[in-house]
Amino acid sequence: MNTLSEFRIAKPGTVQEAVAACAKHPGSRFIAGGTDLLVNMRRGISSPDLLVDISGIDELSEIKIDASGTTIGAGVTIATLVRNTAIAGQYRALAQAAVAIAGPGHRIMGTVGGNLCLDTRCIYYNQSEWWRSANAYCLKSRGDVCHVAPQGQRCHATFSGDLAPAFLALGAEIDIAGAQGNRRIPLSELYVEDGKAHLTLANGELVVAVHLPPAPPPSAYEKVRVRAAIDFPLAGVAVALAAAGGKVGALRIALTGTNSRPFVLAGTDAFSGRSNDEKLLQEIDRLVQKQVQPMRTTIASANYRRVAAAALARRLTARLFAESAG
Amino acid sequence: MTADPIADGKLARRGVPLIDGIEKVTGRARYTADLDHADALVGRILRSPVSHGDIIRLDVSKARALDGVVAVVTGEDCAHTYGVLPIAMNEYPLARGRVRYRGEPIAAVAAVDEETAERALALIELEIKELPAYYTSADARAPGAVLLHDDKPGNLERDVHHTFGDVAQGFAAADLVREQQFSCAEINHAQIEPHASLSEFDPATGRLTVQTVSQVGYYLHLMLAQCLELDSSRIRVIKPFIGGGFGARVEALNFEIVTALLAKAAQGKVMMQLTREETFITHRARPQTDIKLKLGMSKTGRLTACELQVVQRGGAYAGYGIITILYAGALLHGLYDIPAVKYDGYRVYANLPPCGAMRGHGGVDTRHAFECLVDRMARELGLDPFAVRRANLLQAPTRTLNDLVVNSYGLAECLDKVERASGWRQRLGKLPPGKGLGMACSHYVSGAAKPIHRTGEPHAVVYLKVDFDGSVTALTGAADIGQGSSTMVAIAVAETLDISLDRIRVIAADTAITPKDNGAYSSRITFMVGNAAIDAAKRLKAVLVTAAARKLEARPEDVECVGEVFRVGSGDQSSLSFADVVAEALVDEGAITIKGTFTCPPDFHGGKHRGGAVGSTMGFSYAAQVVEVSIDDATGLVTVDKVWVALDCGHAINPLAVEGQVEGSVWMGMGQALCEETRYLEGLPAHASFLEYRMPTIAESPPIEVQIVESHDPYGPFGAKEASEGALAGFPPALVNAIANALGIDLNELPVTPDRVMDALIARRRQARLASTLKAAS
Q1: Cβ of B744: how many Cβ atoms within 10 Å?
Q2: Model pTM?
Q3: Which of B228, B355, B399, B753 is geometrically suited to a Cys-Cys bond with B287, CB 3.0 to 4.6 A?
Q4: A307 contacts in B (CB within 8 Å)?
């Protein structure tokens, strides 16, 4: 096993203390479950000298459901989310995404906030120090070239979190705490299309909770991967569909595993009032294929991920229609 | 010696949990990394950052000068090559002059802790002049390619050309001749335990003790003597518990020799624990293989001729390469009756980690192509896949065209069993859309009849020791790597002596204590060591019966020995307990040690042609399996719903263990078929973790219904043959045949990952569109 570098651990009792500790110390990182960060640290990708352990902060691990919607603390573990029947009942896409994350051990340790802020991934990046050094590193870390697209100017590492598309399709907002104060933004604004810096969080800022609006439309999530456990999504799709009388009321589709950020498919507003037919599904297929930007960041081909993402979007839309009719 | 078949062993019929199982499941078992190494130095290896090049400068002076560094070794410290085949040892434990793959060991340090060791590696100055590197067989074989090894023109390690029978006439007589190409990805054993080695050199005695993950302590012992220039008598190799082998550890590995070099240089104890990435880079697994196969078949499904071309991308060094390329041709034989066979094999050097032996060694990719093509030709001729196999069965005993001996042959019964269990006749063609059934057969050797090292010694030796305490200790060099060989030895002794299994203790794989054994590979242990154990037990029984007779004042032939009681007739007065008999046997003699041996007679050593020894064995196991799949045509995902498999292992010495081994081999075949593959990016492994090397998880693991067929081999111990490898090779073709049955798509590449299935589906849709456009236009 690769050796971890030396670091200290701080264990703040409140969000305020956590944020202050991180803001004060530029080389620090927040840690909760550690399922993403520790692996990268062992590979020498990241070597923070202070870890601010937020796993003991009670206010981060609450789930509140009331008339104004549902609030899920960023420290809620994936396993807890999976077990919550109220969430599974209302926000099915979220429950389906949660249970599809990695393996049981990861779900016990990993948290909602950690999954939303998952580092982007690439076969040229998630490698040992020896490997990356032999390859002259890469644009995302210590190098000058993106090996996936050497002519380009940006890093194409892929975002692979499963929860984000489910939250996006369901119209989630997030609360962010920082040394300068707190703010609430739509989840979609957390991300930008840059594999090297895909999160819009300022230094020391922490995602503390996710809000879901009440009375959500029916939703579903599915991902393709080679193995039915452990693997990150090669493409993951969440669909939320409000349908009435066989026609689209509102349709939101969000994707992961194809770009440097999870994103909401643009152009689905135009489908309002459309009937459930093959033509609609074809148009969805085309929209997805046009907007996803898979690159060779995984061993599976980029084209496969494009085609599979479109296939999932079609399938889930058709399934939700069928359920609304039934 | 040769054991007589026994109809119904008492222990065997129940099946016995592995005698070391409790230690493993309770966590008490000590694997190499668990051994006490509190006082050991930490070993670390500097690996080549480039695929191919000449070392211009290697300066370790700064590393050596670092506080806490006790030893640094480089290629300068070992001028001897090592390897497994006496004729093909072309690898240095630490590169000398030239590096040939990314990750090849160049230098190593031993330091007081990990951090110091890693800092020392960073202080080593290395300058390499890069050479062109080749990552495919075609590139390495291209005219003008730089040679990896000067004595191997065309970067060919070995080419094999064998023809048996009249191939041209066979094809002329065929009603259908088809030729297809297949490509099977390189895969890795992916054993759960990463590599580790603990070496201690005692400067006072000049002795070296090595505890390591090896399946072949004896071969390692030889290589340590050679590379460290130590007298063989000063070396001891001990095998702790092993977390899986599958062939990963069937030759001495570079890190094992490097750890010993460090221990000698440091005059002390060094622990080397490789990372998962380094464990993958050490490799020695199944090569990427290109296959061109041509078969001739009559209208009735009878095979008339076979022409096979195999190209294996073997990596940078020889390893077992020659054996692998010979097996790929030799194992065409021995499963079916084929009147004429032509084989051309090419083992190619490339700038990648060296390949080696892996479960089903050499035969798996060939079998895949063969069973797929047979199925496709059967379909074209309107024949049932089972019927085609039945049309080509062998009749035992027989000799194959290439002089392999088939003494027992339970394939017909295997076919019957899986056909019935899977409901093949009722269900084939009647499954819902997206579902399919496929089948295939396979076989494997029970150890090579002609050993790698021709020393003239027996193939196996087992000692039994009986002393005052009445226990029976079996000493065997056989390496139990999880396959249950120590349990097998205990059962063989217990059955022969008719004593309780608890009375037997097995001490295994310690070159200072146990008799030499060639190791755990080619499924040789049950057949060879099992026979030696029975031989020893029979000799011990004779000693005990003689002692009992003396005590009972009877003739030995009148003494009966049943369940640890020795008696004459049925009277209680004339019976002795096991302890009584042992006490009597020790009078005048003291502790009893008995040796049993087993030797494969020359008659079984294979053909006289060059390479003819490879594939030779005294007993082939046989397997048939049916695989049921579901395919999602929107995502290309293949799900294995169920597997029915039958294995002819001659006689199940331990049915519980046989079942486990058959499940394991089917499952490993499933990994190769569905999702496992190594991928290199300019020679850097993109697969070197258990996230990227996609072994199936429990989520992919289907129910596997195992049936055991017992053909009672005339030479096997109690009639037994191997049980651990035979069922592997049938899985990939059965899966691909099932996909063809479900979708009508013939896939020629392994593994059948969703992107490959999707590509095939898209290609078919495109063809269909093109066809309808053409039709509309005409």
Answers
A1: 10
A2: 0.97
A3: B355
A4: 758, 762
